[in-house]
Sequence to fold (79 residues):
Amino acid sequence: MKKTDDKGHILVPEHEKLTEKEKEELLAKYAISLEELPRIRKSDAALVGMNVKSGDVIKITRNSPTAGEAIFYRVVQGA
Fold:
């Protein structure tokens, strides 16, 4: 399967890899573990060129007509 860079597409929300410190703060803030976060595949087109590994946390910022922006978190899983 050929990977493409879809980051510039208007329908692809911003994806940002959290630092280890930011990841720890997120898990502590919500009193959760990595296993409780939704998953995103390492091979997802939005992650191309981000140098992610399993266990990394991705912050996804989407535009929202009602809230202005909505933030979601995903943990990277292999393959």
In short: The beta strands are 14-17, 39-41, 57-64, 68-77. The two ends are 12 Å apart (CA to CA).
